[in-house]
UniProtKB/TrEMBL annotation:
Species of the source: Vitis rotundifolia
Top-level lineage group: Eukaryota
A cellular-component GO term for this protein: membrane
Record-stated family: Belongs to the cytochrome P450 family.
InterPro entries xrefs: Cyt_P450, Cyt_P450_CS, Cyt_P450_E_grp-I, Cyt_P450_sf
The protein's name in its UniProt record: Uncharacterized protein
GO molecular-function term, one example from the UniProt record: heme binding
Binding site for heme: C443
Length: 502
């Protein structure tokens, strides 16, 4: 009887035991395969090192490479670029490291920027790590493979025509005037926070006519979570940054899905990017280029907010700081903007033509972008073994064009750490200004971003005097783009009042 019971309980346990055994075996096999792959890669790399001139640098610890150093820089007040800067000083213009299990080469010369970014021989592509693709979406312009990218970009580029930028400038100008009117009642204005909110509002309106305060605020928070997750360790556990980012992405996708359904049912019609993309979809039969699918539309609307909001807001913040630190530049700028203000006093908002008459302000914008290098490096992947700057690059390696080092190279820019807008009086050396990238992946929103910076500059300069309260230049931790930790708090006083007081 007892023996029978033992047998029965053994039989009950059997499925569990078998399952456990299977699991252990699978884990063992996967671990072995992973180890073998790692070993094969190390052997292949060692062979490569012996036979070719590979970039100098350290591979760091086995398997994790220099990931911990990279993460330490990301969470320090110097920002993640410090990781690159230290190695660039140690090894020179081209060096190699290993982060997140992948080999990364950083190069900082205009010749390599030309070769890699123009990619005339098709040896490089842009590819983000899998975790980033999960956050922005596989159909995002940022992650799409060469052919797919061409197709999506071909569709999106129509949205950035001169006509749509002109109409955007008008909307953006009105939004700024309203925003600035509230500043004089605030004891302190944190430029970064204000700029993020302003640009998020402007982009939500332009992309999908989203104007409800609550919806815009929710979206802004969700986009911030997605951006944070893009540089977080891809650990899919609740409470991690990565998980929060994935959840935020789901909410954004759901909201976009709802908007698309509303438009399809004819419940709403607006003259915005979303409507144009859906219209392309309806007219598909008459067009050679296939229209974007709903998934592509959703991923790329999120991509544009990610690519446009933080970057432009950070650039505006740095620009305000640089101007505060360089009063002689501010003085020249005020004279130019005063003339524009006189000319446009009878019109309700600024136009593209007005912006074209701001040569000095345009140089201030360009110099701010050079100094701040918001997108510090431009990532690509080698599709075949090749040579860059005299060094062998192995197929599959990540090759990053270090735009920040190029922007601060004294052989390209005299006194590179000084804010001198007039340095752009003449032609720049080819591939020495990479704030918006170059080649087939050049920033789609480049003209829109420049327009936003100019409109902001004009309205700020002609409305207020300001002083920066906290001059700290520390960089925000865990930020995808180079952002001031302080957010640049300022005190403002209206120009007209100052003049009356004087
Ligand atoms: C000051 C503000 C901005 C800066 C500094 C900036 C910078 C850049 C850079 C450097 C790239 C190229 C990256 C590479 O080659 O790997 C890029 C790509 C891109 N940017 Fe911007 N950007 C700004 C504003 C905007 C705005 C306002 C939008 C949209 C409205 C936008 C949309 C995009 C898109 C969609 C791409 C991907 C293009 C492609 O892969 O074909 N950006 N941006």
């Amino acid at each position: 009887m007892e023996l029978d019971e033992i047998k029965r309980s053994m039989l009950n346990l059997l499925p569990n035991a078998t399952l456990q055994l299977c699991c252990y075996t699978v884990v063992l096999i996967v671990s072995l395969m992973w180890l073998m792959r790692g070993t094969a890669r190390v052997l292949r790399d060692s062979h490569w090192e012996l036979t070719a001139k590979i970039p100098p640098g350290s591979r760091g610890l086995p398997l994790i490479g220099e990931t911990l150093h990279f993460m330490a820089a990301t969470s320090s007040s110097k920002g993640f670029y410090d990781f690159v800067h230290i190695r660039q000083l140690r090894y020179g213009n081209c060096f190699r490291t290993s982060i997140f299990g992948q080999t990364h080469v950083f190069v900082s010369s205009t010749e390599s920027a030309k070769v890699v970014l123009n990619n005339e021989l098709g040896k490089f592509t842009k590819r983000y790590i899998k975790s980033i693709a999960e956050l922005v979406g596989n159909d995002s312009l940022l992650c799409a493979s060469h052919q797919h990218h061409k197709l999506i970009r071909g569709r999106l580029i129509n949205l950035f025509s001169t006509a749509s930028i002109s109409s955007f400038i008008k909307q953006f100008d009105q939004l700024i005037v309203t925003t600035l009117s509230g500043w004089e009642h605030k004891p302190t204005v944190v430029v970064l926070h204000e700029a993020l909110e302003l640009i998020c509002k402007a982009m939500c309106k332009m992309l999908m006519s989203l104007e409800s305060g609550d919806e815009v605020e929710m979206l802004q928070k969700d986009v911030a979570h997605v951006c944070e997750a893009m540089i977080a360790f891809p650990l899919r556990l609740p409470c991690t940054r990565f998980y929060r980012g994935l959840e935020a992405r789901k909410r954004v996708m759901k909201m976009l899905e709802k908007k698309i359904e509303e438009r399809r049912r004819g419940e709403a019609y607006h003259d915005d990017f979303l409507q144009h993309l859906l219209k392309d979809n309806d007219n598909a039969c008459c067009d050679e280029v296939p229209p974007l699918t709903d998934a592509e539309i959703q991923d790329n609307i999120l991509t544009m907010i990610i690519a446009g909001q933080d970057t432009t807001a950070s650039a505006i913040t740095w620009m305000v700081k640089y101007l505060d630190e360089n009063q002689h530049v501010l003085h020249t700028l005020r004279a130019e903007q005063g003339r524009i203000a006189e000319k446009t006093s009878h019109t309700s908002s600024l136009t593209l033509d007005d912006l074209n008459e701001m040569p000095y302000a345009s140089k201030v914008v360009k110099e701010s972008l050079r100094m701040a290098s918001i997108v510090a490096w431009l990532p690509r992947v080698a599709l075949q073994d090749c040579e860059v700057q005299g060094f062998k690059i192995q197929k599959g390696w990540n090759i990053n064009i270090d735009a920040k080092s190029i922007h601060l190279d004294p052989t390209l820019y005299n006194n590179p750490t000084m804010f001198i807008p007039s340095r752009f009086d003449g032609e720049s050396k080819p591939n020495s200004f990479l704030a918006f990238g170059t080649g087939g992946r050049t920033c789609l929103g480049m003209n829109m971003a420049k327009a936003m910076m100019l409109v902001f500059l004009h309205r700020l300069i002609t409305t207020y005097n300001w002083t920066v309260v906290n001059p700290d230049s520390s960089i925000e931790k865990w930020a995808l783009f180079s952002r001031l930790k302080s957010g640049c708090p300022i005190h403002v006083s209206p120009i007209a009042k100052d003049a009356a007081d004087a």
